[in-house]
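New to this. Explain these tokens.
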Amino acid sequence: MARRQARAAGGRWLPWLGLALLPLALPPAAAPGGCPSPCYCVATPELVQCRYERLDEPPRELPASVHNLSIAGSNLSVLRRAAFAARPLPDLRLLRLRHDNIQAIEDMALQGLPALRTLDLSHNPLLSVASGAFAGAPLLRTLQLNQALLAAPLEEQLASALRNLSLQRLELAGNELRALPTTLLPAGLEELDLRNNSLQRLAAAELRSLEAPGLRGLRVSLGANPLRCDCALRPLLAWLQSAAARVPDARSLRCAGPPPLRGASLVRLRLEGLGCAASEGGEAGRLETASYVFFGIVLALIGIVFLMVLYLNRRGIKRWLHNLREACRDQMEGYHYRYEQDADPRRASAAGTPGL
């Protein structure tokens, strides 16, 4: 009987216990100013990460106090005007949009992010960047575009978009660049990341652009580029020897060719060790070729002048040659006559019998 009474009492408490545990079993709704439902917040709402949620647009229920926002693996496609302005984010300083299939950035896409200092757009197939794409972030200092310029040539569009910014760091790693993007170097830039591109050399004109008044403190990272250590590398090698502190990874630079120098450390090479045959197209080779061409042109002009003189004096030269031939003939006849006189036997016998 006692057991039956205990079971009955326990049965009466079960519904109340279920109601008490129900809030723990259901996911919490996104409270205003809390973490948005497709994302999660790390430690505090100041760090929000939305990874591989296949979002078509940035989440709108972001906490106003967020400092760092990371969206990765989504399908944002186009960053439209005021894409993050649904709710003011006055404290957002770092925005990472990696692997989000972003192809176009419209004017004022960053409107509403007045404190943004770092923008990471790496690993996106960018096709179009409006001239006012970054105008809504006046404090932007770091722009990361690693492996983001492979789909289309965007140097002119980016140059227009960066014109009014005061960037301090620009990352362009992994974009298969074959030349220094001089139009993307705003005055005041302090760090430029060009690692893992397709640079074989930096020409003298490109290196001179790094000596512009607003870029003399610029540090350039060049690691993992297929540098070809031939005569055309002489300007870069000379620049490295005089400004090694401006290339933080200078000691890691290696020659990708030619075969005799493959794997050699660039900082240990000497200018004399680079082959500078004219066929290699280096500056010394071009100068040598130019000197030979100039010398040949001078000789040709001298030859032409000489032939013109001969042509203009052909009659006098003909007369002179005739007189010279007659003089030679008279001289030869005199020699021949004396030879015949000396060879006459009668003169020889008369000379041998004196007194007759």
Remarks:
- The two ends are 196 Å apart (CA to CA).
- The chain has seven helices and 14 strands.
- Helices lie at 2-25, 155-161, 204-209, 234-242, 283-312, 314-343, 345-352.
- Residues 283-312 form the longest helix (30 residues).
